[in-house]
């Protein structure tokens, strides 16, 4: 009696379920299973190794190799043979991952950048941020971005949260000495003092135009005003923050 197939985990259903030539498509249809598509997504799109792909999907590496080879052959058959490709079936389930962690593991050659995020802007209070926008950068290009919500409280908890999500770089606005120490202990590089659109700073980092700054920018014994509730209101000084410069010498924000 053959051993029952183990259910494979996928992170999401596809946005597009079929592909076909614009004209003269053959009547024969090639069917690509959801679990086969997942191997293409993880290995080819997100640059994961087959070992990491297997861990993500909850199967063995040999199973991933078999699915991956089948998937590539089917895609080639569709493209070369001019046949319609339909995504359908497969022994799989959508992985019920927490909204607080990224579903996609980071590939070896990818730098993962996190920015405290609110309404498109760099949120200025690192320790109070409720979400990060996370970018995967490879060879000077952002190939993926997503928004994830935080779950911890305090600087140390957020540093652990970023480490769990395999973040290499933090770009932020205001940040205190305790947070800096926690992040550096987690081997996360810091670009502090950013003010403006999050996407602008992410693109500047990808293009190598961002100047690093890891000094604390939130120090209530320094140049800060305090409101009646005792919260510090920052006067962010460019000399202590990161900046990004275009080819014409202008700042990107």
TrEMBL record:
Residue ranges occupied by any Dinitrogenase iron-molybdenum cofactor biosynthesis domain in the UniProt entry: 119-206
Pfam families hit by this protein: DUF134 (PF02001), Nitro_FeMo-Co (PF02579)
InterPro entries: Di-Nase_FeMo-co_biosynth, DiNase_FeMo-co_biosyn_sf, MTH1175_dom, RNA_pol_sigma_r3/r4-like, UPF0251, WH-like_DNA-bd_sf
Family: Belongs to the UPF0251 family.
PANTHER family: PTHR37478, UPF0251 PROTEIN TK0562
Name this polypeptide is given: Dinitrogenase iron-molybdenum cofactor biosynthesis domain-containing protein
Organism: Peptoniphilus indolicus ATCC 29427
Lineage, uppermost ranks: Bacteria, Bacillati, Bacillota, Tissierellia, Tissierellales
């Amino acid at each position: 009696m053959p051993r029952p197939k183990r259910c494979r985990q996928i992170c999401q259903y596809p946005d597009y379920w079929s592909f076909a030539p614009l004209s003269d498509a053959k009547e024969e249809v090639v069917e690509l299973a959801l679990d086969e598509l997942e191997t293409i997504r993880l290995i080819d799109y997100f640059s994961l190794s087959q070992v990491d792909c297997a861990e993500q999907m909850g199967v063995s590496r040999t199973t991933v190799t078999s699915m991956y080879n089948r998937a590539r052959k089917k895609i080639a058959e569709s493209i070369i043979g001019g046949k319609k490709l339909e995504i359908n079936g497969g022994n799989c389930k959508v992985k019920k991952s927490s909204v607080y962690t990224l579903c996609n593991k980071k590939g070896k050659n990818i730098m993962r950048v996190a920015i405290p995020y609110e309404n498109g802007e760099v949120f200025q209070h690192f320790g109070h941020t409720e979400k990060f926008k996370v970018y995967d950068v490879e060879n000077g290009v952002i190939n993926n971005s997503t928004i994830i919500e935080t779950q911890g409280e305090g600087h140390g908890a957020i540093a652990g949260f970023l480490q769990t999500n395999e973040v290499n770089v933090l770009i932020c606005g205001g940040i205190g000495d305790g947070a800096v120490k926690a992040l550096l202990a987690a081997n996360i590089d810091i670009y502090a003092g950013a003010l403006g659109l999050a996407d602008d700073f992410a693109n500047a980092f990808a293009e190598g135009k961002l100047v690093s700054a890891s000094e604390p920018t939130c120090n209530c014994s320094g140049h800060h005003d305090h409101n009646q509730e005792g919260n510090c209101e920052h006067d962010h000084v460019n000399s202590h923050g990161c900046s990004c410069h275009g080819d014409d010498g202008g700042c990107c924000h």
